[in-house]
Amino acid sequence: MPSRSGSVVDCFRTAICCALFGCILLSAGGAAADEPAQPLAATAAVTFEADVQPLLTRFGCNSGPCHGKSRGQNGFALSLLGFDSDFDYAALVGEARGRRVFPAAPETSLLLRKAAGQVPHGGGKRIEPNSPHYDLLRQWIESGAHRTPADAPKLVRVVIEPATRSLAPREKFSLQVFAEYSDGHRRDVTDAAALQSNDKTIAQVVDGTDGLVQAGPVPGEAAVMARYMNFIAVCAVTIPLPGDVSPAAYAALPRQNAIDGLVWDKLQTLGMLPSPLASDTTFLRRAHLRIIGRLPTPEETRAFLADQTADKRDRLVERLLERPEYADFWANKWADLVRPNPYRAGMKAVWTIDSWLRDAFRKNMPYDQFVRELLTATGSTWQNGATVIFRDRPETVEIGSSVSQLFLGVRLECAKCHHHPFEIWSQDDFYGFASFFARVGHKGAGLSPPISGGEEMIFSRPSGQLAHGRTGVPVPPKLLGGDAPQIGPEQDPREVLVAWMTAPDNPFFAKVMANRVWSELMGQGFVDPVDDMRATNPASNEPLLDYLASDFRQQGYDIKKLIRRIATSRVFGLSSVPGERNIADTRNFSRYYRQRLRAEVLLDAVNDILGVEEDFAAMPAGARATQVWTYRASSFFLDTFGRPDPNQDPPCERTSESTTPQILHLMNSPALNSKLANDAARPAKLAASDATPQKIVEEAYLLVYSRPPKDDELQGALEFLTKGENRRRAVEDLFWALLNTPEFLFLD
Amino acid sequence: MAIHQNCEGLLRRDCLKLGLGALLSGGLTGALGARAGAAEATSRKTSCILVWLDGGPSHIETFDPKPQAPAEIRGEFQPIQTKIPGAVFSENMTRLAAISDKLTILRSVCHNQNNHGAGNHYMMTGAPTRIPVSCGAFVSFHPSMGSVVSAERGAPEGMPPYFSLPSMTRSGGPNFLGAKHAPFVVSDDPNNKNFIVRDVTIPQELDDGRANGRREIRKRLDQFIRFHDRAAADPVLGADENYQQAVSLMTSTAAQKAFQIQQEPDSVREAYTRTPLGQRALLARRLVEAGVPFVTLNDGGWDHHSNIFPAFKTQGQKLEAVVATLIEDLHQRGLLETTLVLVMGEFGRTPQISTLPGSTTPGRDHWSSAISVLVAGCGTPGGQVVGATDSRGYAAVEKIYAPENLASSVYLKLGINPDKILYNSTGRPAHIVSDPRPIAEIM
Question: A281, A472, A564, A660: most buried by Cβ count inside 10 Å?
């Protein structure tokens, strides 16, 4: 939820997606002059799918900038990364009147002469003449350029061995890539697979031919991906912090719930140790801001500090989950993800979906029901807010890729035009998945930007299938990695889809939400971006993510229970201050990660502290920023601190980095300064009251920092308050000063 | 701290070893801390104005027309003569053709990142994305040219060294250089009558004494702990940098004056055209005059999958009016010798015209194999075309240069060594540009 992630939005709205994919593999596997230990198919006949196609990927022939581009290169087109064998075979063998592949004189085949750089080739020399790979291609041509028989064993899996590896800095090791076939046989395809590290500084592929990988100079983690045909396998490489920590040190760490043990396990593999617990006041402020998005009042802080019971932190979490602010705060996060552009969908639709979201969080609607009500919505976009997602994304392909990303963490949009370049998903998967939405009916006023004010009815039609983008053939609905269920005319295919998504054995559904909620509470997901889950973007703590997902499922997809589980772990309560053995940890939750307050929370905090109200357009008096239902309620403050703007195409992501304009706004904005100087605001009232200077300082600290001042701070503030003649001005300046410090601006 | 000094003149491999040694012995903090403020004070006072055409402008409709190619490649426009012997531009580039004696056109820049996210990153940073990204991505794996210039050059007191108007480009951020080197974004439209750069001045009702008093008590009371080891990636350090920059900006008269575009005579404002882009270009010139080394003008709407010909008639002509005025104005003021003007986008467009399903107006798609870039000023020879594409505009065929070479040229012109090693927050080394060879013809 932290970001309306770039691609969810833009790929929906970008007319042409990235059919023309960048060449990632040219540099991946090393130079063309590799010497494989032995030809790939020394014992069997050399055939197209089994032997030749992998080499087209390995040497970058079918990559995006080369012949894999949708229109090909220089009249010769291959499918991107070899996802369409029929097409590729026809291109090589059927076209160009046999010049590309010429069995009568194999060496004169253009395939060999171009690849070996013997005739001018835009892609240069890719293969050494007479190298084993060259010989393999020649052998294939010589033997008649046959396809792999349809009844030949099918490739079912690719594995890397080892799957995990711990290395010392600069240490090298060789991994092996194996292809496994439906008849149970297995062969080493290391030299034909394309290898790539996701972080070359941590671990680098030195030599693609023999799978040689070398660790970089610094500790960390990297994933080395092997692509062979349309399969991907990943080897997780870890370079632990040098120096020994005794196992006893980990055994002795406290465990408040299962989360803690799983974090400590991960830290042990990296040689890291966690920070100690944060103070009570830090925890109090953190829990308030993370669970309900507002600061504790001075009374709440005093009461919490006075409470001497051992379980006061857990009880605080319980209380916060029952607060009314909870619903607005979490609905506001979901609005980032599904709120439509009012210029497209109309203002009223923006309002109905916003109300629907707030209502769902007020009821603590179980997450499976939440998703079911959204995805199977029928009725009027003016009555049932859940239907608005279908108004906002009227195209079947749009809603399909949106749903897979938001609720399954699977980014399918690449597969709209071609096989996903670093995933297993094919075009068939994409169209099969999107086809669940092919029967969504629309009636009434459709979209007619820029003004689309009308009412639309969303319903389920008795028939309809999505046409495949390449073949034009209607594709029946097919589950991701699963079957194509039979769906009768009386059934709504969306119901079938949601039943599969919310079933206990769905591998994606609970995990994506667990990762989102974790990210919202901890400042960072296990997987980042939170909705881009794939083998090539591994979670920083897979066992913990699995645990949270299964716990979430077992607790009936109760979002509050998931929040409670996380917020009552010891890990949630850790200090942000790093120690010697976790100074460089920014992914493994050995300490709490600081984050700037998000725009709405910050504006509400300023107003709460100063005792003033914001005047938003289209909102009742006294409304809070987290309750605003449209970005068209203008606020320079919210824009400066970054709220996603659905009027931008694509909208900006919500980022938490601070910027100079933000700091300038807090310092100098006329709006904030008039609040400080307002006769009815807190500074004026405190100044006019008979409170002692010390009382005023204490109140200011409790309001802004949610803690009492330390002696030294009290001293400094008192000197300032009492030195001038104008008490009110001094109190205003004191509030200005505190509001302009990082301790206010950041969640610690 | 010794590391930085030791690195001078050593091989890259040795630097890696030293970096590692420092990390393991716990000396990383000091070493990186010392690097943080290492702006090179010795650089010449050169500047760059980057006119970024977001979406990827067509090379054929601008500086690399193909009059001999078939109609489905040639498009609707005629070629026009320029002051460069033998070189023609597309007919919409008349004003630029008239000053082509001041320009170098690079016709054979190319790369292999054919979607917006990755292409933007490559051209904006001189580095390809570390992992593949999709077309919608706003990604940053390496500091943008503007951010590197900010870090290496700095600016006169009070001025942010890197401006981006009216918004940051997708990959225009600082990455590991930190928030201090993010662009200073001026979103307000200088074409508006009452244009001010909001929030950069102290509120009118406060006198200077009171504003100073506020900052003093703030300083006294700010006791929040900072994690100074950069490996800890404490976001508070970024906010501190922002605060320092904010105070400098508010107290600098040079900065305050540069923002006052209203001081320009009407004739100058008209010459730049009374459009947001035109007035932003004029503001960029004022910023450069005030010593700002890098200004990006982010101009969107160049992703012409459809409607390309009508668009170039209007949008193309508007653009060239602004760019030509900017170059002429810089020239007349003697600033062109020290100001590099770059006009480019993330890639070129497919030579073959196509019409999208559902569209009726033709356009061109993404094409990274042939990119035209306009370069002027800062010692760039005028009146030349460097490189060429084939007869149909598909591939760069001679003097082929990569984004690395372009970025290296920009850095060298701005007095920055592109082969220098920077360190990210966890101490990982990275060259400013992996291939530090510049484009010889423009140096």
Answer: A660
